[in-house]
Predict the 3D structure of the following.
Amino acid sequence: MKPTNLSPIRVGLLGIGTVGSGTYNVLQRNQEEIRRRAGRGIEITMVADLDVARAKAAVGAGVQVVDDARKVVTSPDVDIVIELIGGYGIAKQLVLEAIEAGKHVVTANKALLAVHGTEIFAAAHRKGVMVAFEAAVAGGIPIIKALREGLTANSIQWIAGIINGTTNFILSEMRDKGLDFDVVLKEAQRLGYAEADPTFDIEGVDAGHKVTLMSAIAFGIPVQFDKAYVEGITGLAAQDIRYAEQLGYRIKLLGITKRAANGIELRVHPSLVPAKRLIANVEGAMNAVVVQGDAVGTTLYYGKGAGSEPTASAVIADLVDIARLHTADPEHRVPHLAFQPDAMSDLPVVPMSDVVTSYYLRLKVADEAGVLAKVTGILAGAGISIDAVLQREADEVGGEGSTHTDLIILTHDCVEAKMNNALAQMQALPTVLAPITRIRKEELA
């Protein structure tokens, strides 16, 4: 019989902010249940934080607190290092040093893995240790485990996710209250949903990091954030959300990765999604990911994408996995990116200009005869077919006596490069009075 009196696995924590304190608290609260699941205890024995007083207040008397993270990384009394510092700088050095010291690593750092994951996973493979990162994507939703293990029988066709709570909160508020982006952003910052510097969220970078990791796991390609197309929500106006609604769509910032004939699509941008799709109805700061597999069909994963204890839930799930597999032959553990390291694919990431999708276009045009004919003529000349046209009367847009109107066009599928050329021609028309708004449309059928 297998012995059940294994000594607890010892964990060192780098950073005890929101997620770190949540991890400590959930481990303490559920320690008996976690021990029964893992087959041994899991104990945080050492914490590094620059604010030593705050760290000591957050943990129990039996935990050693230091102000130098390297003391944790090199300690012979630590088996697993949890990295919760964030960013690309010191976090990368500490993770690589922990791996070199033969320690397993758990991290919530999507930016680090999306940019340097190939180097980090290779180092871990050489040393026979695990790097676990469930908390790096979609907070408490176990999407990494679902892709890497639960859906392993499937050829994944595509993934589309609302994977940034800040932007989803902003879009929900814009829709509910009819307000423009700038107004809602200020409110999101006041409520704590958006950072003081919200650039990573609102420009789509955070979602780009996360979809890069999901893409690597789904398709067995290296992590390559530098190849992702990333566009945020700063150009969206309240009327786009209103017009989309009238056409039966909601606008969501989606991270999308898709198997295509010429490689793998990897992109983040605002998208029109049919209102009848479940993901279109995910509101506020919640996250959701839709995965399409050839055997299972469509699956949906929904939950809190951030926060102290939801993210801690994912961190501790990784700790339990490592505790279970700690003594296993490294060659028989679940590979970091789902596929065996020597069986990764060199499928290229498709440039955005080669992606095929359909579009929503909003043109502010002079309210005079012949404008629509010129615009549709340019689209026809580019080989782009039109699905629907909506013209807002002058009194709706600019009031009585207005000299302009909004022209809304939905297109059928076409190659992005064709649309880029057509947009340049339309923008050059003297009757087009403002920059054209272009939003891609995803049916997710």
